[in-house]
Every structure is written in C-alpha cells, then in structure tokens.
From TrEMBL:
<feature type="binding site">
    <location>
        <position position="316"/>
    </location>
    <ligand>
        <name>substrate</name>
    </ligand>
</feature>
<dbReference type="GO" id="GO:0008836">
    <property type="term" value="F:diaminopimelate decarboxylase activity"/>
</dbReference>
<dbReference type="InterPro" id="IPR029066">
    <property type="entry name" value="PLP-binding_barrel"/>
</dbReference>
<dbReference type="InterPro" id="IPR022643">
    <property type="entry name" value="De-COase2_C"/>
</dbReference>
<dbReference type="Pfam" id="PF02784">
    <property type="entry name" value="Orn_Arg_deC_N"/>
</dbReference>
<feature type="binding site">
    <location>
        <position position="374"/>
    </location>
    <ligand>
        <name>pyridoxal 5'-phosphate</name>
    </ligand>
</feature>
<feature type="modified residue" description="N6-(pyridoxal phosphate)lysine">
    <location>
        <position position="64"/>
    </location>
</feature>
<feature type="binding site">
    <location>
        <position position="374"/>
    </location>
    <ligand>
        <name>substrate</name>
    </ligand>
</feature>
<comment type="similarity">
    <text>Belongs to the Orn/Lys/Arg decarboxylase class-II family. LysA subfamily.</text>
</comment>
<keyword id="KW-0456">Lyase</keyword>
<dbReference type="Pfam" id="PF00278">
    <property type="entry name" value="Orn_DAP_Arg_deC"/>
</dbReference>
<dbReference type="InterPro" id="IPR000183">
    <property type="entry name" value="Orn/DAP/Arg_de-COase"/>
</dbReference>
<protein>
    <recommendedName>
        <fullName>Diaminopimelate decarboxylase</fullName>
        <ecNumber>4.1.1.20</ecNumber>
    </recommendedName>
</protein>
<comment type="function">
    <text>Specifically catalyzes the decarboxylation of meso-diaminopimelate (meso-DAP) to L-lysine.</text>
</comment>
<comment type="pathway">
    <text>Amino-acid biosynthesis; L-lysine biosynthesis via DAP pathway; L-lysine from DL-2,6-diaminopimelate: step 1/1.</text>
</comment>
<keyword id="KW-0028">Amino-acid biosynthesis</keyword>
<feature type="binding site">
    <location>
        <begin position="277"/>
        <end position="280"/>
    </location>
    <ligand>
        <name>pyridoxal 5'-phosphate</name>
    </ligand>
</feature>
Length: 428
C-alpha cells in the first residue's frame, strides 16, 4: 500500500479530496492539520479485509495516534473500538460513541484514579503491565463489587528493528512483564478475587515494515499460551498489539496482506479471539499539515525556507529525525535545494535539511505530508504558540474539528497576590 488518494492535484492546486487546500487556508488560516475521511475509511477497510482469514477478532484503533473525535467517530463507523493509554483517551473514545466493551486500556503508568474510571466505565479489557497493577486493580474491583477483565502484557524480548525510541519489546523495555516471570505472575493474578484473567497481550514496537519480528514475538506467545493452558488457565483472548508501519517517502508500506496471512498461519491453532491495535497504518497517510512560507532566508550552503508550522505542531522530526515530504500547494514545476525550518526557538525545529523541494516564495502555501498519526496528538503550545487547528474533509465538505486555541486559553494562570503587591526594585 502506498499513499492514499485523499490528497491530489486538481488544476495545479493540491486538494484534500475535492476541497482546495488554498480554500481551507483562507477560511481557517495556518498551520492547520487537514484529514481525509476517504483515506481513513480506505485504510481501515484494507486492514480489516487483510485479517478476513481470522475467524474471531476485534480491532481497536490506537487513540494515541490521533485522538480527534471526528477521526474516532469515523472509525467507530468502520467497526473499530479503541486502544487507550490514559483516562483522557478513555473520555475521548466514549465521547466519540465507542462502546466501553470495545475499549482496551493499555499503558504502563495507569493511576489508581484511571483504573477506577475504567472499571466504572466497563471497559472491555485492561492490559496489565505489572503484577502490582493487577493487585491494585483486583482490590479496587472487589471493593466496588465489580470484576475486571484483564490480560497480562508480556515482554517477549524481541527487537522490532525500528527506531530505538519506538521499540517496546526488548528486555530493557519499561513495558510488560518479563517472559520468564509471566507464568508465575499469571498464576497469582488469576487466583485473585475481583479480576478475571483472559489471556496475554504483546506489543513490540511501532513503525514495523518487516513482519519477521512480529512473527518471532507471536511464536513466543504461542508457547506461553500452551503453558498457561497446561496449568489450567482458560485463555480466550490474545492481544497482538499494533505496529505495522508506513513508508513516509512515498514507497511501499508494511504489507498488510502478508501480515494478515502470517497471523492466520501462526495463530491457526490458538482458539482465541485475537485483538489488534493499529494506529499509524490507519491514520498516517490520511493527514497533511498545511503551512505558509514566512520567509526565504539566504544561508551559507542553501537557503532556509521558514514556515509558520513548528516543532510544537509536528514533533516527529525533532524527536526521531522523522521525514515528512514538503510539497507546495501550487507548485510551479521548479525546485530548489533548501532547509525547511519552523519558527520555534530551537535548532531542532527543522523539517528538512538541504533537500530538493518545490521552489516556494514568501506567502506561498505548502504541506508536510503523512502526518495523520502522531501529528496533532503530540502538539503543544511551546513558545506560547497557539494549539494547531484541525479540519476534516469528506468529499466536497469540510469542517473544523478542533479550533486553533491561543496558548493563554489552554491553561488558566494567575500571579500570587504577594507578587502583585511587591514593590518594584530598580538597579542603582
């Protein structure tokens, strides 16, 4: 799979489906995230169809990739539940109309308050990251007269072969319990009142193109499932996580058909409901970050194209040296080798280094592509910049799904009375 057809040129101008990005910029301003509903639907359906050989399954979109209520609502309509990692994501999933029973609560740092929130909401499964978390959950559920359904997340010590900062399944990972300790921990948790252990969860990382590491992890989980059943545990669910990657340079993504065939082959005799948590694969290609060129500034080796989108709006290049193609909204066919940078007061606020890009001038519109996942979800108000706006396009319709919010409006602040009343001191 390559980029979705959600974004393309019409009469020389880049469109989201049938809406000109120039029209959106005029109406909403920049920087703005723009999502294609059609691209989201196509990716969601392709993922589901690739898993058609698997008889019992559930799909939960990884909300951390894109918590937009519009995105979540659209995916609910495509039969997806939610994989969440915080109480805020639980609230978002419920507000988007997702059934609580279709929500899986993952994450290594759930607070007691968040566990209580999940219990009262009736989430489908809680993925336990430690024995202590299971003990607290069981005691809490017993006190309020409920039973929590849970899986134990196991660290299979498999290298996903991806960026170190998004690898989650090696032996030194903070996620899950060690494979060697999993049997005994599961035994003890299964014996507690207030908790119904139903199986195992595994997730080795994100942005995985080669499915071989996933297969290695799943085969280790197969051994664990067999050993647990030999001890008398009824294993009904296995969460295989997400992680299937995309090619940000316009090439081939992770082969979802090959992935589905591999899962069907490896799990053929498991007799469980398999759970999947795709995020990036569903959303990445479905979004662009619309930006405007502020300045074209001479440099020692090549010019700096300074745009109004910054690392606070799109953090991935600063965090991971991630690549996002820079494309003019109305290209002339001419190119230039340039640095593309944002306005944030950090040297890491850079989207491209000495790259061949469309020639642009002051005031021109451009986009950073493939930002539908881990784009707006990681945005901040650093440098007291406004929180970026978000738009969804569906055919010839578009709507603001998240308005631009001034930094001062995000969090109410105050000055202590003793500072307000303090006299001014001037240096002599």
């Amino acid at each position: 799979m390559t980029r979705e057809a959600g974004f393309g040129f019409r009469d020389g101008v880049l469109h989201a489906e049938r809406v000109s990005l120039a029209t959106i910029a005029e109406a909403v301003g920049t920087p703005t995230y723009v999502y294609s509903a059609g691209a989201l639907r196509a990716a969601a359906r392709r993922f589901r169809e690739a898993l058609s050989p698997i008889p019992r399954k559930s799909l939960a979109f990884a909300v951390k990739a894109n918590p937009s209520l519009a995105v979540l609502s659209l995916l609910r309509g495509e039969g997806f539940g939610a994989d969440i990692v915080s109480g805020g994501e639980l609230t978002a999933a419920l507000q988007a109309g997702m059934a609580a029973g279709d929500i899986v609560y993952s994450g290594v740092g759930k607070t007691p308050a968040e566990l209580a929130q999940a219990l009262h909401a009736g989430v489908g499964h809680i993925n336990l990251e430690s024995e202590r978390e299971g003990e607290v959950l069981a005691a809490m559920a017993t006190r309020i007269g409920l039973t929590a359904t849970a899986l134990l997340r196991v660290n299979p010590d498999v290298d996903a072969g991806t960026h170190a900062k998004i690898t989650t399944g090696k032996s030194d990972s903070k996620f899950g319990v060690a494979f060697a300790q999993a049997l005994d921990i599961y035994d003890r948790l299964a014996g507690r009142a207030g908790i119904a252990m139903q199986g195992i969860a595994v997730h080795i990382g994100s942005q995985i193109i080669d499915p071989a590491p996933m297969e290695a992890a799943y085969r280790k989980i197969a051994q664990l499932v067999a050993l647990l059943r030999a001890r008398g545990h009824p294993i009904t669910h296995v969460d295989l996580g997400g992680g299937l990657g995309v090619d940000y340079r316009g090439g081939a993504d992770g082969d979802v058909l090959a992935y589905g065939a591999m899962v069907a082959r490896v799990t053929r005799d498991w007799d469980v409901t398999l759970m999947f948590e795709p995020g990036r694969y569903i959303a990445a290609h479905a979004g662009v970050l619309l930006t405007r060129v502020l300045w074209v500034k001479p440099g020692s080796d090549c010019p700096f194209v300074v745009v109004d989108a910054g690392m606070n709006d799109l953090a991935r290049p600063a965090l991971y040296d991630a690549w996002h193609e820079f494309t003019a909204v109305a290209p002339t066919g001419k190119t230039i080798r340039a640095h593309v940078v944002g306005p944030v007061c950090e040297s890491s606020d850079r989207f491209a280094r000495a790259c061949l890009i469309d020639r642009v001038a002051e005031g021109d519109l451009a986009v950073l592509r493939d930002v539908g996942a881990y784009g707006a979800s990681m945005a901040s108000c650093y440098n007291s910049r406004a929180l970026v706006a978000e738009i969804m396009v569906d055919g010839d319709r578009h709507a603001v799904t998240a308005p631009r919010i001034a930094a001062a409006a995000i969090r109410t602040q105050s000055v202590p009375a003793w500072l307000e009343a303090a006299p001014l001191h001037h240096a002599a």
